[in-house]
Amino acid sequence: CIGIVAEQNPTFYYNMGQQFWPTLGYGYNAGVLLFHLSRLRARGWDRIWMKIGLNLMNEKGVLPTAEQDVINAVLNQNKRWLYEIPCEWNIQLSAFSRRERCPVVWKFSPSNYINREQFLPDNILTSYPIAKLLHFNAHVKPEYFFPTPLRFPSTTDGMNEFHSTGTRYPTSHTRWKV
């Protein structure tokens, strides 16, 4: 009924523990969700998530990851509802995400730029899935440091350096507002 990717940041589990964060394993990250709506409605989704959410808030007082806490608690109580989406569909780029929780190959090359595949050994390309969706799940987003709309690999050296399109936005659009 619910498709979701495993959490790649063990911080929540280790810092809050099973007692605070009722999850299966490390839990699941709500950055990408698939809902089978007719199945959820048939199982009383409205009533279930509301009851679990209210119980969590009454018991804990605060939900550090908001709806993700509720969804994890729902899945912990309804394990058969879980459909684990392959991790490459939600590569979590927070500071404490563990790359070994989802080893992938990143292909950065649009067709008019250098082909990075020529720099990667064949066994790497065939051993790991290709990253499909990147999730900047931290308070500071890339545009805070790089306020340009597009960044591609540099075509001069073919390695990991980046250059931008040169378009700049006013800094008021890139800083956190208090």
From TrEMBL:
Q: Where are the transmembrane segments?
A: 20-37
Task: Give the organism the record lists.
Answer: Schistosoma japonicum (Blood fluke)
What is the superkingdom listed in this entry's lineage?
A: Eukaryota
Q: Which InterPro entries match?
A: Glyco_trans_8, Nucleotide-diphossugar_trans, Xyl/GlcA_transferase
Do the record's keywords include Transmembrane helix? Answer: yes
Has UniProt tagged this entry with the keyword Transmembrane? yes
Q: What is this protein called?
A: LARGE xylosyl-and glucuronyltransferase 2 isoform 1
Q: Where in the cell is it found?
A: Golgi apparatus membrane
GO CC terms on record?
Golgi membrane
Classification lineage: Eukaryota, Metazoa, Spiralia, Lophotrochozoa, Platyhelminthes
